[in-house]
Amino acid sequence: MVTKLTLEQKKQLFHDGYIVLKGVVSDELVSTAQARIKAAKRGESLAPAEELTDLVNRSSVTPILTEAMGTFDPPSMVHVGVTKQSQPADYFTPLGYREKDLPYFGHGMHAEGLCTMTPPQERWEGTPEEIYQRMIAAGPKGDIGRTADVIGSNTDPLFQDPDMTLSVGSFSAFVIVPLNDQMADGVGQTAVVPGGHRVLEAFYRWQFETAGKVGPEGPGWPRFDTNAENGAGHVYLPDAVQEKLMEMDSETPETTPDGRPWPRPTPIKMEPGDVAITIFQMPHTGTRNQFGTESRKNMIYRIRNKRRQPNHVVTGVSDHPDRGAFGEWLEYEEGNDPWARSKHALTHMWDEWEGMQDVVAGETPNLDPIDFSHVQH
Ligand SMILES: [Fe+2]
User: Fold this and answer.
1) DSSP state, 312?
2) Which tens digits make up the pLDDT trace of 98-136?
3) How far is the CA of 110 from the centre of ligand 1 (A)?
4) Which SUPFAM superfamilies does the record cross-reference, listed alphabetically (predicted)?
């Protein structure tokens, strides 16, 4: 049984921001999990199913990730990422464009941990301020004004902290375990931008150094895009980050019908038995399962290094564990500033990867710095 990454694999994880490990989840664990999904009753939540959390808790994933990253709470819940087969569709996605118009199989690339409101399905007119107020009132709590109590339709708080200086929930690593074959093109893969983690971390760091704020509504990152087709798109990655991601690509990016180019994601091709590990800062997206012969099944676990908040248990599904699942305020002991800790983790992405430190020290000097000082704010 493999229990740690090789030096080469660690270097790959460092540079690409993710790695696929072949054959680290046994056939038995895979088939038990597949059978559990098949046996699910209509409407039953599989999130707490042990057969699914076992894919991490009883496989090599746990020793491998513990060695590379550090101690973490064994996931007690899983995000069951099932993508049914579908054809290009007319509805507006959170980016504010029609699903069929977005390139790369319905691209929706985003930074993790952002508040999302249900996208308007007809065009909204108004000033950016009017659109903003209307959008933030569209969450489950209704119109309570611009406060950190607002949560999105995806349950992510508008802001993590009461002072509204942090608008990104955070953890340390994604673990993705596929339960069907995803080696062919266009079968609904999770997709990433290799190397994009460095760009996003550099942007977070520039935001923090410029204004002490991190995420949407911090420097260089408006929350909504009134130029999107429905007049109210979410800015899931700031323009400056998208530009750098496109510069890293040797091919010309594809566009939406309005001529706007979008960074090209790389689908993570896996089959049962494999696992993908990505660092939190990796820009990523789901994709349309257009050509699959079955639904795409990825079990997704959100893992946080236990050092971040030793007194709080992370279940494995929340992308904003500094707050409760529905934005509840959690208790922190005197002297423990969860927002400062999370800002540090967002802007120093490898600090929570204890087993990566030699590779980080060895490889970082070879990298060109990523500069955002030209960005208007
Ligand atoms: Fe995501």
Assistant:
1) S
2) 999 999 998 899 999 999 999 999 999 999 999 999 999
3) 6
4) Clavaminate synthase-like
